[in-house]
Amino acid sequence: MEYQAKTAYQQKQVVNQYDQRRFQNLKGKITNWMELRLIGRALKYVNILPPARILDIPCGTGRLSEYLLQKGYSVEGADISPEMVRYTNQRLKGYVSRNADIARVENAEELSFPDATFAAAVSLRLFGHTPPENRLRVINELKRVSQSYLILVYYDRNSLVGMTRQAGRRKRGISWHPVSAAEIDGELKRAELEIINVFHLLRGLSETKVVVARI
């Protein structure tokens, strides 16, 4: 099944403005700091420490990849958008040897990486865009290429932000797929994953929740 986010970030102009539109004002800077910090906290919680090899998918403009590289992790980014990959590789040139790239074009539902390539896989800002049937295929692929844990960011429909934004998103024609705690539990059980912990950006207020699942 195709969905909006698969084609929404293919244009250079859209990609070049992505961070500016989301993370340059005060609210965006705070959100960015909190999201990245929460991912780092989740990795440490399950003792995935530098220089462990991490998959960042979708890598988008490389903000999470850069954060993890600065912490000392070995990171590979992947995104379905060639323009996002271009942007990330340009941004992270200083972290790799000459003529090497950190990011590559990949479809999260059909990854080209061999089994158990990474210590862990992280998926930030994907699952809200992804219908349940596609999301389960993504989870199974992340499980296949990871050795131990998945760090999965879901969006809570029962949070204050989740409830207030749904009508506005529908009005603007934005495809969005928030979930309940029960739906997350059922989805990860179908994938034969065990939920170890859930970290909330702002419990009850923010949509964002980081789920740590063990393979």
Strand order of the largest sheet: 3-2-1-4-5-7-6
Q: Architecture, CATH level 2?
A: 3-Layer(aba) Sandwich
> Count the strands?
7
Low-confidence region ranges: none
Briefly note the CATH topology name.
Rossmann fold
Strand content: 15-25%
Helical segment tally? Answer: 9
Measured as a percent range, the helix fraction is: 40-55%
CATH class: Alpha Beta
Structural class: alpha/beta
CATH superfamily: Vaccinia Virus protein VP39
Series of secondary-structure elements, N-terminal to C-terminal = HHHHEHEHEEHEHHEE
What is the radius of gyration?
Answer: 16 Å
Q: What average pLDDT do the residues reach?
A: 93
Instruction: Tell me the major beta sheet.
Output: 7 strands, mixed
Oligomer: single chain
Shape: globular
Number of domains: 1
Describe the structure.
Helices cover 42% and strands 20% of the residues. The model has no long low-confidence stretch (mean pLDDT 93). The protein is an alpha/beta fold. The protein is built from nine helices and seven strands. The protein is globular. The chain has one domain (5-214): Vaccinia Virus protein VP39 (Rossmann fold), CATH 3.40.50.150. Helix 7 links the parallel strand 4 and strand 5 (146-155).
Give the topology:
Elements: H1 5-8, H2 12-16, H3 18-23, H4 26-45, E1 53-56, H5 63-71, E2 74-79, H6 82-91, E3 103-105, E4 118-123, H7 132-145, E5 146-155, H8 160-171, H9 181-190, E6 194-200, E7 208-214
Parallel strand pairs: 1-2, 1-4, 2-3, 4-5
Antiparallel strand pairs: 5-7, 6-7
